[in-house]
Design brief:
3 domains, eleven-stranded mixed sheet, 17 helices, about 35% helix, UDP-N-acetylmuramoyl-L-alanine:D-glutamate ligase, about 25% strand, Protein-Tyrosine Phosphatase, Chain A, alpha/beta, about 500 residues
Length: about 500
């Protein structure tokens, strides 16, 4: 497609070269991923690209460049001039990138039902639930884009390791194009706060946006809770046609007045279009009554907890809003497979229940431990830590939460990244100490899990929190293979 066609209707200025240049190899932000025929988009501050990477991108065959500034450094300017490359200035390269990538792949979001899930907690669980319900109830082919990668059904779509939970717009539109070409009927994606703030899902024609909740997290990225909230709310300010929102959450309730399109509500404690009452929970799941439009539906999910019921309500509401039969959706709830790394269970030969969960924020840890405390027959032992190079203000609070609910805590490393693991544990310790709950420290995560399992007896519950289904630990620049559940199984001799 011609560059002029990709940019039609978008504010731009041609600085050099021919705007009729054909783009035949897609678009990219990363200079090392440029190839002959590509459009390189020089996003300021991008780790693998930016204006300083124009020269390397041209050396790899890029035939056109989008920039925000008219000034290129001398080597890049000379390279562009010598190669006859078209250089175009746009006001915002990220906004332009989304529009250009969508057009390049033929606006694939228009061809499928698009569901975007945002909120602090529940994005992955709701995404998996939407996929499971549509597959179970109707045999639908569903694409998923999120924390665990991108896939169509059980088939992973290979992508570079650097691709984010909400991919940058060139990768995101490529994935949508792949899914459309495979005749996927519905795509469900996790829309992170940074993904929304950086325009990664712009121009994707989202049919339903789901808001789960807002609690403290990602302050290392956003600075304040107000900034974090505003990034989430971008989804409901023109990016989605309709919304499904949790009105038990104050921010969710505010979306009702904000949305230009239809809003459907769900709640456990407030009046809403979809409500749940009569919750009955044990260690294997939750039964409840779903209320909608004056009717009652007996329902069950194979996951314990009020928060899991809230996720189920969001899922059912979104799928029903897309036109799927409500009774069939509710009937399929109790057949949903477990979401990897989300309240994932294992029982040791000695009768200890082990739960692996992604809980890595104060609110998510509180909800998971509160649920476990509600059904545990004996002791609760919690293995947890806090990620490095992330919001330090939540560390002592998470220690306090773990200590409040647990009989024993095993403090360990999560993803230390570039921080000293022992220094992170030092910052968690005051919160734990204040509760009086006994605890031990093992910076080595495998040793921590081994200690918890050896200390646990029959009917005890061991929660291993923080990493969920992640297959690695991040230490500095290294991704070290490590799976919580695989480690549990190995240590238990399973």
């Amino acid at each position: 497609m011609k560059l002029s066609e990709l940019l039609a209707g978008h504010d731009h200025e041609v600085l050099a070269g021919d705007p009729e240049t054909l783009i035949t190899a897609g678009t990219c932000f990363d200079a090392h991923r440029a190839s002959p025929g590509a459009l390189f988009i020089a996003v300021p501050g991008h780790a693998e690209g930016g204006p300083e990477s124009v020269g390397p991108a041209l050396a790899r065959g890029a035939v056109a460049v989008l920039v925000e500034s008219a000034a290129l450094d001398a080597p890049a300017s000379a390279s562009a001039s010598a190669a006859g490359v078209c250089v175009v200035r746009v006001p915002d390269t990220r906004k332009a990138a989304a529009a250009v990538a969508s057009r390049y792949y033929g606006e694939p979001g228009r061809a499928m039902d698009m569901v975007a899930v945002t909120g602090t907690n529940g994005k992955t669980s709701v995404s998996y639930m939407v996929e499971s319900l549509l597959r179970l109830a109707e045999g639908a082919e569903v694409g998923v884009i999120g924390t665990a990668g991108s896939r169509i059904g059980d088939e992973l779509i290979p992508m570079p390791r650097s691709v984010l939970t909400t991919p940058e717009s060139p990768d995101f539109q490529y994935l949508l194009g792949r899914m459309r070409d495979r005749e996927v009927s519905t795509v469900v994606l996790e829309a992170t706060s940074m993904g929304l703030l950086n325009h990664r899902v712009d121009d994707s024609f989202i049919d339903v946006g789901i808001f789960t909740n807002l609690t403290q997290d990602h302050l290392d990225d956003h600075g304040t809770m107000d900034n974090y909230r505003d990034a989430k709310l971008r989804l409901f300010q023109g990016l989605c046609r309709r919304a499904v929102v949790n009105v038990d959450d104050a921010v969710g309730a505010s979306i009702v007045a904000m949305m230009p399109g239809e809003v459907v509500t769900y709640a456990l404690d407030s009046e809403a279009d979809y409500r749940a009452t009569d919750l009955s929970m044990d260690g294997h799941g939750t039964r409840f009554t779903l209320h909608h439009d004056g009717r009652k539906y007996p329902a069950a999910i194979p996951v314990p907890g009020r928060y899991s019921v809230a996720n189920a309500l969001a899922t059912v509401a979104a799928c029903h809003l897309l036109g799927h039969d409500l009774a069939g959706l509710v009937a399929a709830l109790d057949r949903m497979p477990p979401t990897p790394g989300r309240f994932e269970r294992f029982e040791t030969p000695g009768g200890t229940s082990v739960i692996v969960d992604y809980a890595h924020s104060p609110d998510s840890l509180d909800k998971v431990l509160g649920t476990i405390r509600g059904f545990a027959k004996a002791r609760v032992i919690t293995v947890f830590g806090c990620g490095g190079d992330r919001d330090v203000t939540k560390r002592a609070r998470m220690g306090e939460i773990a200590g409040t609910y647990s009989d024993l805590c095993v403090l360990t490393s999560d993803n230390p990244r570039y921080e000293n693991p022992e220094a992170i544990l030092d910052q968690v310790t005051p919160g734990l100490t204040a509760t009086g709950t006994p605890f031990v420290r093992f910076a080595d995560r495998r040793s921590a899990i081994a200690h918890a399992l050896s200390a646990a007896g029959a009917d005890d519950v061991v929660l291993i929190a923080g990493k969920g289904s992640e297959p690695y630990q991040i230490v500095g620049e290294r991704l070290i293979p490590f799976s919580d559940m695989a480690t549990v199984r190995e240590l238990a001799g399973a």
